[in-house]
Amino acid sequence: METVSQDKRMVHYDLLRIVAAFSVVMLHCAGQKWYVLPVTGREWQIADAWDALFRFGVPIFVMISGAIFMEKELDVKRLYFHNIFRLMAVYWIWSGLYGLYDCRNYNLQEVGWKAVLKEMLSGRYHLWFLPMIVGIYMLLPVLSTWIKHAEKKNLQYFLILFFCLKIVVYTLSALCGNYFVGYLEGLADIDELGLVSSYLGYFVWGYYIAHYGIGERWHKPVYLCVLPSVLFNIILNRYLSIRADAPVGQLYDSYGLGTFVIVTAIFLFFTSVMGSVPYGKRAAGIIRELSGDTLGVYVMHIGLLEVLAERGIDSMLIPNIAGIPLLALGSFAVCSVFAACLRRIPLIGRFLC
Q1: pLDDT grade, residue 226 (50/70/90)?
Q2: Distance between CA atoms of 239 and 248, rounded to whole angstroms?
Q3: Residue 96: which residues within 8 A CB-CB, separation 6 or more?
């Protein structure tokens, strides 16, 4: 793989982070009516197709972390006080804010402060990403030593385990039901191999592609597999949902085979093809600025979508084939502006987003 300067490579990661953040907003816009629309209807099938197409965001975020963190010397003190503490602060602050928002119509005399506190600690479903990535960061003092000193074949062995024991098993579970997975787990105690059956696999995969690359002869096949993977996700998930007479989304989740191929192709594209694209100072500055807003976009966009939905503005305001991407673009833009303002607040800004 062609060697790219650190500054130049960071610009590509910043751009990729923006794409991943928009992907997360897009899938949540697509999911607004996903659970309530009839699965045989055209609107649900359009929403499901958008959802299936934009499932790559979270794995991409994890892969970027794997690529970046393993390229620099690890300072444990800085890791905890600069990265882990900040992310946990963001998590608890926004969990509290979402909880207070949910309690806005509560009668405190009836429910009491314990109920309010419980809501504040519960957070929102999308915030799960923050403690997950913090868990990986806490392992970095051990992981970095292993990864940096491991031979290429050792990393390949780990990735093969991740692919077989998570990607393949997860996909077969979606296609064949829990009986198949239960049989495998009983046969091989797969549950005991949690490290290779988690997002840590994507973390190492990001480092591997960034550090070793993928042979040039494999690039074209990987890119050519994207369209079949998209169709695999959309068509098969539609079939499974109609068969179950209820929305089913496991097939195209982060660990689905089709999504794994799409994630790999996108990350490969940004670390190889985009590596040869020159960026001027102004363009690089804009990309870095937008990239700096992505954490804020992630934590805020669900709240914005809920506020808009309460006022009748959602993905179904116009035909959702256009309504979903337009709502996502608008939400991304608004949250980016708010994030840019919040993170510039002296002292506390970096703990807000």
Answers
A1: very high
A2: 9
A3: 120, 121
Largest CA distance in the chain: 68
What is the Cα gyration radius of the chain?
A: 21
- pLDDT higher than 50, residue 6: no
Question: CA 298 from chain center: how many Å?
Answer: 9
Instruction: Report DSSP letters for 133-183, one per residue.
Output: HHHHHHHHHHHHHHHHHS-HHHHHHHHHHHIIIIIIHHHHHHHH-HHHHHH
CB 202, CB 61: distance < 8 Å: no
Determine contact, residues 16/270, Cβ cutoff 8 Å. yes
pLDDT digits (tens, 9 = 90+) for 86-126: 999 999 999 989 988 887 766 665 666 676 677 777 778 89
- Return d(Cα 212, Cα 198) in angstroms, integer: 22
Residue 50's pLDDT band, with cuts at 50, 70 and 90, is very high
Residues 6 or more apart in contact with residue 203 via CB below 8 angstroms: 62, 63, 65, 66, 136, 143
In this prediction, residues 340-351 reach a mean pLDDT of: 93
State whether residue 104 is helix, strand or coil: coil
**DSSP annotation of 274:** G
